[in-house]
């Protein structure tokens, strides 16, 4: 099987090319962000931090960064407990309606995001949530919920509910037994779900394009507008920082998941 | 047997049901308020404007600009799905046939871009493909071309970047399905005298078809609703359905028309899921992150 047949060599070459295609765009951004050139030249003429300086010195970019981090933080704080409670109920209850509820909670992954975005825009316009922080947070909670639910449901699959029964038969009430027995065992999947919700909120662009405005515009909306107008290497600096943040978070999430087995 | 006394276990069970519904209701409320209600609103708005009307749908189905956009979106989605399958299948096959350490490395490279913002990747493709971009400079340096090629701000650039974003959604279900194909089946084929390529075509390929279907469905459906990539890389000429929706809202204030387009798009997506779910379970499509 391991003998190198011509077909096997073709397979290796094609796969290698596809993998290069996959990672090349991710790798190209960092060198651009450290280039001194105003216009895109590759390889960069000399090393410079000027685009990072431009980013950190620009009040508009800083305000957008604050909005993104605030929204992502509150998204995690709200979506994680809601998602954990829902996943727990879905996995423990024998009610038939739970199957439908489970599907409903995955809707944000099924409905094309542009449709969700326009719909939310119309509803927000009626209730005065357009261009507000709570409006952004609520939309991102909805978008982040499926990640928490999927992650925690996977964690609960390997958990034996009889353990919680034992704790309760020993006199703990339901809530205490959940926090003392169940939660510690699914902690990694909860953390992973929360991290995915954070990344989802940090990267979310389309809903923000429609519902955010004024001083409450997240980073992605400003980046999108900037990209449509001209290609400013400041975007490369921001992109590099965002990518680094995402990767660190994913690494954190996956090491946690691994520890739980 | 008739029960006259309330059964304590039944009462317990009712309390249990109540608790579970209470636990799931906050999340459900968020979903109802922020996706079910908005989408319902769109549907309502598409047929009601000072009275019931089908005018918006008449426009979507008869006017050229809408028709062409839907046709183009389906064409691009088909092309993207086909290319993603051609590129994704070998990678999934390789990941499935090499030792564990290598397959982890290959799959990591596949999901690595997954965790980079779509916006960041659109920027990267602009940097790579534009007239003064990396690819054009390289090709000119190598004397392959004398004039820069128009690689972006057209359908080509859109497809290149879209396939890049959707490829993981193809590779992961393919790999998951291939993992479940028993290796001894291939050996059985070989021991019965079939050549490796014949074993592949007659045994492995048919068994991997559920993964092909799952991956193709996901890529096709996601592509139908793609917005950021065609908007930034299409150069205004590649007007996909999602851009039609956003332009009708942002530029022309045609809320009714935008809603009708959105409803037609959503119905197409749901129909595809419905048809596919007759062959494979939806969990299989959505289960992969």
TrEMBL record, chain A:
It is a multi-pass membrane protein. Belongs to the binding-protein-dependent transport system permease family. One of its GO terms (biological process) is transmembrane transport. Its main location: membrane. GO terms for cellular component: plasma membrane. This is ABC transporter permease. Residues 65-253 form the ABC transmembrane type-1 domain. The chain crosses the membrane at residues 9-34, 71-91, 103-125, 137-156, 177-199, 234-253. It is found in: Cell inner membrane; Cell membrane. InterPro entries: MetI-like (IPR000515), MetI-like_sf (IPR035906). The keyword Nucleotide-binding does not apply. Signal peptide: none annotated. Keywords: Cell inner membrane, Cell membrane, Membrane, Transmembrane, Transmembrane helix, Transport. Pfam families: BPD_transp_1.
């Amino acid at each position: 099987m391991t003998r190198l047949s011509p077909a096997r060599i073709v397979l290796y070459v094609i796969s290698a090319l596809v993998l290069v295609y996959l990672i090349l765009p991710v790798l190209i951004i960092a060198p651009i962000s450290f280039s001194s050139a105003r216009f895109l030249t590759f390889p960069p003429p000399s090393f410079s931090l000027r685009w990072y300086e431009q980013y950190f010195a620009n009040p508009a970019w800083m305000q957008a960064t604050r909005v993104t981090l605030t929204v992502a933080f509150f998204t995690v704080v709200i979506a994680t407990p809601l998602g954990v409670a829902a996943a727990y109920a879905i996995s423990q209850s024998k009610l038939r309606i739970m199957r439908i509820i489970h599907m409903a909670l995955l809707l944000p992954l099924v409905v094309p995001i542009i449709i969700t975005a326009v719909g939310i825009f119309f509803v927000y316009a009626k209730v005065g949530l357009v261009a507000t922080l709570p409006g952004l947070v609520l939309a991102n909670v909805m978008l982040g919920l499926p990640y928490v639910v999927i992650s925690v449901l996977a964690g609960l699959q390997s958990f034996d509910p009889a353990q919680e029964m034992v704790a309760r038969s020993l006199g703990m009430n339901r809530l205490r037994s959940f926090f003392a027995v169940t939660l510690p065992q699914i902690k990694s999947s909860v953390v992973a779900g929360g991290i995915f919700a954070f990344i989802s909120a940090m990267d979310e662009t389309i809903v923000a394009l429609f519902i955010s405005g004024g001083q409450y515009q997240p980073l992605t909306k400003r980046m999108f507008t900037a990209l449509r107008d001209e290609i400013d290497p400041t975007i490369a600096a921001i992109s590099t920082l965002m990518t680094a943040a995402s990767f660190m978070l994913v690494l954190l999430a996956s090491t946690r998941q691994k520890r739980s087995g | 047997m008739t029960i006259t006394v309330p059964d304590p276990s039944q009462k317990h069970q009712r309390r249990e049901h109540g608790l579970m519904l209470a636990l799931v209701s906050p999340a459900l409320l968020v979903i109802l308020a922020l996706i079910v209600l908005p989408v319902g609103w769109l549907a309502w708005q598409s047929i009601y404007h000072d009275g019931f009307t089908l005018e918006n749908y008449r426009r979507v189905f008869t006017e050229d600009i809408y028709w062409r956009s839907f046709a183009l979106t389906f064409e691009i989605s088909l092309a993207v799905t086909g290319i993603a399958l051609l590129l994704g299948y070998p990678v999934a096959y390789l990941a499935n046939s090499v030792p564990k350490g290598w397959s982890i490395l290959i799959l990591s490279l596949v999901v690595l871009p997954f965790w980079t913002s779509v916006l960041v990747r659109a920027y990267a493709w602009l940097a790579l493909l534009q007239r003064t971009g990396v690819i054009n400079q390289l090709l000119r340096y190598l004397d392959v071309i004398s004039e820069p090629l128009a690689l972006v701000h057209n359908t080509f650039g859109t497809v290149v970047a879209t396939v890049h974003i959707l490829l993981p959604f193809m590779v992961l279900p393919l790999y998951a399905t291939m993992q479940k194909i028993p290796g001894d089946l291939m050996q059985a084929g070989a021991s019965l005298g079939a050549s490796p390529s014949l074993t592949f075509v007659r045994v492995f390929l048919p068994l991997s078809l559920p993964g092909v279907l799952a991956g193709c469905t996901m890529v096709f459906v996601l592509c139908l609703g793609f917005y950021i990539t065609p908007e930034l890389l299409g150069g205004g000429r590649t007007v996909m359905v999602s851009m039609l929706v956003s332009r009708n809202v942002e530029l022309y204030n045609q809320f009714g028309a935008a809603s009708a387009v959105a409803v037609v798009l959503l119905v197409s997506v749901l129909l595809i899921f419905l048809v596919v779910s007759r062959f494979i379970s939806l969990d299989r499509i959505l289960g992969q992150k």
